[in-house]
Predict the 3D structure of the following.
Amino acid sequence: MDQPALDVTLAYHQRSKHFPFRFAPSLGYMDWQTQPDPFRRFEGAQTFPLGFEPVGPLPRYEPAFVLGQVDPAPLNAATVARLFYDALALSAWKEIAGGARWSLRVNPSSGNLHPTEGYLVGGLLPGLYDKPAVYHYAPLVHALELRVELSPQVWRAISAQLPKNALLVGLTSIHWRESWKYGERAFRYCHHDVGHAIACVSLAAAGLGWDARLLEGVVDEGLATLLGAHLQTGVEAERPDCLIAVFPQNGWPEAKTQQSFRLETDLIAAVRAARWMGQRNTLSQDHHDWPVIDEVAAATEKHAPPGDDFWSSFSHRNDSLELGESPLSLRSIIHQRRSAVALDGLTAITREAFYQILLKAMPGSSQIPFTTLPWRPCIDLLLFVHRVADLPPGLYVLLRDPARKNALRSSMKPSFLWRRGHGCPSSLPLFFLAGGDVRHAAQQTSCDQAIAADGAFAVAMLAEYRKPIEVFGPWFYRRLYWETGVVGQVLYLEGEAAGIRGTGIGCFFDDLTHRVFGLEGDRFQVLYHFTLGGPVEDPRLRTHPPYQHLVRDAHNAIKPGSLT
Ligand SMILES: Cc1cc2nc3c(=O)[nH]c(=O)nc-3n(C[C@H](O)[C@H](O)[C@H](O)COP(=O)(O)O)c2cc1C
């Protein structure tokens, strides 16, 4: 084990905690002069505009979450366009009458700062380009920017390890986008956002009948080169996060395993020597340094593929999950998703709706998007229930891995009841811990944000923390946040589907939350909060469609167009 890297990682986590009397170090004010551009562009790179397939009723929302329920679409320019449109595109513009205007995306982001960048690595794509290549996805114009052509040998070495008709989606983070506002805690937010983006890719793929799997055999240096991040230095550099194989569902043959995928040294050397195209834009004219973020980023780099114990065959049988007959459309729900800025303090949901939301958050054996993550689930949900009909308000816990029950029970308050909820499906490991009005506790632990008290229920995502980081290595610290982001994205979509609305909560008081549940030490740590309830719209805001600003000429070339 790399003890110094582990020490840096654990120390970072500790110093980036918020306390009621002391927030994690940040600038403490908004420095509008250095506000980063939310859109990375590669100037001079050849740009391929992607098409827009109107959002229709199919596939249905419920079945799309289960592998094998949607017929696989062919791989071509139109389906690649849809993959990115449903995963990482703009989804709306907001405007304060006569004032500021800003874009929002399919993937949520703390502070709407969007540190996550998306890449496509693929072979020749009918209707798009006739050579294997690496492209950057530019959400502002819904287009791919050609970064490098891959030689046929390089693509053969990659695709030989993948199912037929596979492509790769890569994600990177620009830490500066988040640290500009949030200072030292920003590293956490970047990785929540990666988790949300992973789930977005997984669900966009699911809508096409495609599977999405994280390729964890890839190490960070190789990934940086494949995505062109090795050419970037300085505060605005992108850091490599992950590579996701996307391919037709049930297409992964026995002989090729997700586990054995590698970017070998000679392949990486060939990519490094290739001709990269496009100059990255400057995001801010000036910067503030947050050296602690660079330190933890270095400490949590992955230098070697994980050992056999990392790959999990864990699967939970999620028998009670309903595929139902609901006409809800997956793509409509994806594109209408929004964070609630305020909740009404009134709306209740039914007990059945509550259980269905929680069932969706369980990592079932063929349940998307959890099929994308290859490790045994580390995140459980601590619940503050406020307004669920026929269920007593109070504290609950959902064990996403029921094997953790004894460890958690002995770590939490001895007075907790650990009683099954009324009418709770047998496949849902939900336990009632203590009754009472927990609105104040939810609000107080969420940096005093009223949305945590004004919903139907709020969530604190608890990670099994110390042991997996020690066993797998400090790079797993980032994965813990990814898992919370994936769970958070499911909660966002489930909120929309249930007719309520969710909001991710990155601002919370870590140890105060632990205290509510009687948790001490660092065996378990809370990494993300969430709330769901009846939304209150802000009447000052107007909403506009996502791509009205694009004007495309007869040759389908994009012009910047007008934003008004
Ligand atoms: C990781 C994460 C943390 C967030 N933390 C908070 C928070 O503490 N309070 C809040 O009101 N909203 C929070 N949000 C919501 C964001 O502000 C929101 O996602 C962003 O403004 C974009 O809006 P949209 O989600 O409607 O696309 C968070 C979102 C994410 C993804």
The longest strand covers residues 239-248. DSSP finds 16 helices and 21 strands in the chain. The first helix runs from residue 3 to 15. Residues 184 and 291 are 9 Å apart (CA to CA).
